[in-house]
Amino acid sequence: QVQLVEFGGGLVQPGGSLRLSCAASGIIFSINHMGWYRRAPGKQRELVASRSNFGSTNYADSVKGRFTISRDNAKNTVYLQMNSLKPEDTAVYYCNIVPYQSRYWGQGTQVTVSS
Fold first, then answer.
1. In the chain, at which end, N or C, are there fewer CB atoms within 10 A of the end residue's CB?
2. Distances 105 to 10, 15, 82, 92, 95 between C-alpha atoms, Å
């Protein structure tokens, strides 16, 4: 059974930073293309960052230069370092493989950027 558990979210002021983590179990983590997605209030879920098992990365234009995705295959964990956060980054953040599998969605972690 695949389980993806996200944590590290919270309330942060504009310009601040957060580091999200996603611990995976039940999948062969090292061969999967992993991604961070987010769903903002009233919007559809979007892919914001992804990292292949070969190390290539892709970012949504809205986060490019501010977010960095990394992974530790030995720990079956993927990270999202978020810097220079903006109010529009407020969302629930999820990890999943790329392309996502609906049955893999976890609870996500809430990120709120507000002064």
1. N
2. 19, 29, 21, 12, 7
